[in-house]
Fold these 4 entries.
Entry 1:
Amino acid sequence: MTAQLVSSSKPRILTGDTPTGSLHLGHWVGSVKRRVELQDSHECYFLLANMHAFTTRSEDPLGIRRDTIEIVRDYLAMGIDPNKAAIFLQSEVPAIAELTFLFAMLLPFNRVMRNPTLKTELELKGLSEKFSFGFPLYAVGQTADILSFRPVGVPVGEDQVPHLELTREVARRFNQMYCSVPTDAEDEDHEKLGGVFPVPRADVGRVGRLVGIDGKNKMSKSLGNAIFISDSPKEVQKKVNKIFTGRQSATEPGDTSNALFQFVDCFIADEARVAELKDRYSRGDNIGDGHIKAELSEAINALLTPMRERRAQFEGRDDLIVDIVHDGTARANRLTEQTLLRAKDAVGLKFWPRTLAM
């Protein structure tokens, strides 16, 4: 059965993911946990950025489609409730593409390329000078993804904050250029001064960036350093055992700022126990990495067990997942068409209203 969502007076948020495969613990602590918390108090829209996936995987359309379905399965496993939040397809919301083109006129190319997240992605993916025109365009597209929904906030990981700052710049520039909002207006006043778009804030979770099991880079599927929410208990234990610390013995004083203790801080909920582990580890009080990794694995598996159980309910149910996404996309279109009409009116492009049918 699919959910019929209705309009809400709650504050609105928008965030999402590019389908690159199953979600992992970095997604959970960086953004998804916060989404689950907010879905009861906010009007929530969660984007499946399948068009953005083509910026680096245009030769693999079937893989993108498969990964899009898998992300929804992971959302549902992690506790996102389609009765409370709209999960929708970017490719089926035409207002996003139209606003992307309009917003591209507001951003100099060199400003887009200064985005540090964009630079990092180019380096990590080895694209160098070989990237397509669509790759930097997706940074502009993200501003349209967000502003199409006129949200007050965007739950993001720490690395996505530069993308959101670009969005905030676009909102200010549009409102000032086309809606006569004063250049010295406070961000929170833009809408009441006649701006089409709010200037959304970043809502970064308690853990803005989770290191991978390599102990160096951000957790990422492409780097092979991720623990996925679909991993079995044995797979979790095996991966946790790979977390590198460089410590040689249980009696050697250890650095509690290392990767292992970043995981401990994230996933062992008993604060007194965490404090005890840190104290003994820092003093080399006969406590080895293996002991801590065993406790950590137990804590991570306790978190993942209900997620695995929920995920199993949707295995082989692609039809149900498509129904959920169809309903969420219909709701997304109702809202974004309103936004697009207001934006077109502001720039003199409104000639008549339109209605989309799905």
Entry 2:
Amino acid sequence: MKYQNKLSVSVMCSDLMNLGREIGLLRNLGTDMLHMDIMDAHFVPNLTFGPDFISAIQNITDLPVDCHFMVTDPELMFGKLKLRREDIFSAHAELTDEAGKPRDYSELAKDVHSSGALFGLALNPETPVENLERNLQCLDTVTLMLVHPGFAGSKMVDGIMEKVRETREYLDARGYDRVEISVDGSVSAERAAYMAGLGASIFVGGTAGIYIQGKKLEDTIPEFKKCIGG
């Protein structure tokens, strides 16, 4: 299946003191969605945005929010949000149930879908794609972490881009070709173009691709969009 390639700009890397103005600029330059990293200082060793911040963003833009929950209790986060059509709610596949098996997300996914939003799971670099098996029927997106999560500007794990091809083949072989693959972490325009050829269609742009020192958004966003054919 052919997807429309989309740029999801990382808000964590934005000018937070002038965020309202910057979001307007991002929209005008063709950004497709805003990537929101929500961390609880438990699942990852950092603390970032929360539901109130997401709501504030939703109040000033119609751009979809691409919410990546690096938290131990994604259900709690969902209960504090008002998701919209085309927003994305992504939890982590590493979370387990009481038996130590990958958590069943069917109820959370049902709630997310009832709001009109999309549900996804994220995989850390070392997590095998097979961890998705229990929740395949729930998924709209899979986010592949190309870095160890927690902080902006981290180095890409060697060889990790090939996991895009592996994941695309895994999903397609099981009849889930509609599920889109998002890539997150050290995604430059050139790397994005390569991974688009492997089957990714959502590209999280941060310090490697959009907020590049010495370059303006007016230059980096059009270049990135050109590389992914967006």
Entry 3:
Amino acid sequence: MFLVILMVVRRIEVYEAYLEYKEPFTISLGTSVSSTDLIVKVFDEEENFGLGETSPAMRIVGESTKTMEAAVAELAPSLIGLEVSRIGIVEETMDRITLGNSGAKLALEMAILDLMCRKSGLPLWRMLGGYRDEVETDITIGIKKPDEIAKDAVRYVENGFKILKLKVGVDSVEDIERVSSVRDAVGSDIRIRVDANQGWSVKQAVRCLNEMYRYDVELAEQPVKWFDLEGLAEVRAASPIPVMADESVRSPRNALRVVEMRAADYVNIKLVKSGGLLKAMKIASICEAAGVPNMVGCMMEGGVSIAAAVHLAAGVKNIVTTDLDSDLSLVRDVVVEGGSPCMNGRRRPPEGPGLGNLRLDDEMLKPVMVFGD
């Protein structure tokens, strides 16, 4: 007879981490200067633990730090005693308790997946598919005057980035000037993308993208309102630049609707709005079946969540590009050792099992809640 000892969730600790940006970050939806993220530690019966991180995205998914904490308080007690390796049951349990609350679910699921992989000795990216061991990210530049954005672009290129993502969507005439200014400043070898964050009307989007085509823009992200899939499809049909859906896809069901309507050439997956790595994988599978490639992006997370997103991008074949740069905008990151450093615009999954060998800055962690033993 063999004695089988199950690894179960015994304790969940929740912390706040205040992350200040190096400079204000402006998109068409507003300006941000900081983020208060949640860091979650999930422990097993032997005091091994996995890490999770989530960032509030009020303008995108309607979550603040406090609403995420309230959701975690509802979800965490139901996870105590569950087998760590039965991650599908974890997902089902959280979805049964509350709808939405994607950020809260992400932090808990990420920590459990990290713990599961740590116990098995397997890096997360290999568990998710193990397709590639390195990814290339763009660097995002917020909305500024054309001359200012051009200076930033040159600085980033000098630092090794080969892909620039320019935020637009406030003034369509100036948006075109921004793109023109950056192209003149960086030359023809640098790839340029634009992201309107829902800031244009259908008519504005079609006009702007046809004007921007001459500047060799490779992608246009979320040109119109997230709920206007008919308008998104209209823009895609009239645009010479490939169109990417972002805010329009917050779930596998959303992804299915977008590809059914042929509303986008690409779909951006973000862990915070997807509700976890498992749902992100489902979105990628739907898109792959429809022949629609994916990008993995970020909100304003720190290094724990960025590490998880790098693992996802490395693991999944259909994820062909990334926008994983938010930790580079921070005055001080919660990860002080390990993680996925960015070198010349490229990132590798952190070494070690699970999310990798990450050491956090304990001084940045403010205890909020504890569940279980």
Entry 4:
Amino acid sequence: MDAEQRNTLLEHWQQLWREAGAMPGPALFDALIDRYREPHRKYHTLQHLGECLANFQQLAAVAAHPVEVGLALWFHDAIYDLGRHDNEACSADWAHAEMLAAGLPAAMADRVADLILATCHNTTPVGIDAEVVVDIDLWILGAPAGRFDEYERQVREEYGHLADEVFRVGRLGILQQFLERPKLFSTAVFFEHHEGQARDNLSQSMAALTLANSDPRH
């Protein structure tokens, strides 16, 4: 991370907290940055965080609680351990504790924690703020083809410990679940601009994975 990127992230971070009405110590920002730079991460990195924050600018105006949405995006992948299944819950707990420690109201901390839990993507988001957070987290599915292809490579690298066949079967199941949804994006803006591209990306990825599965050389 170069100085310019760090300064951009720090400015966004501090502005959110000023709007929230509190300011944590500088160690929290550094701790989060260090998390997103962990070596086992290939997709859930500062690149992903930066894309989330950039997309937040498009949807902040439709959010009911934009500050809470912003803080949820900062913390939603704070904990990312491939060996556990409660990363979102742990990230939510961390955010909740830090907000209370900074003196923010419990109701605000509760909302942020709930928004982070929505990024489990196992249920339909409820409420505009959850829709905004989930749409932003899933933006990558509707990214331009070149960025989506890069994302696919990054996900494979993150799961490099899995054999190809095991990865392909699991990935196919995940992509199929997304394609079976009536809508991938809940907000009107993201549905209009990204839904079609997302379905094209997912279909092409599934076709490539299916072909690889049927290739006797694999």
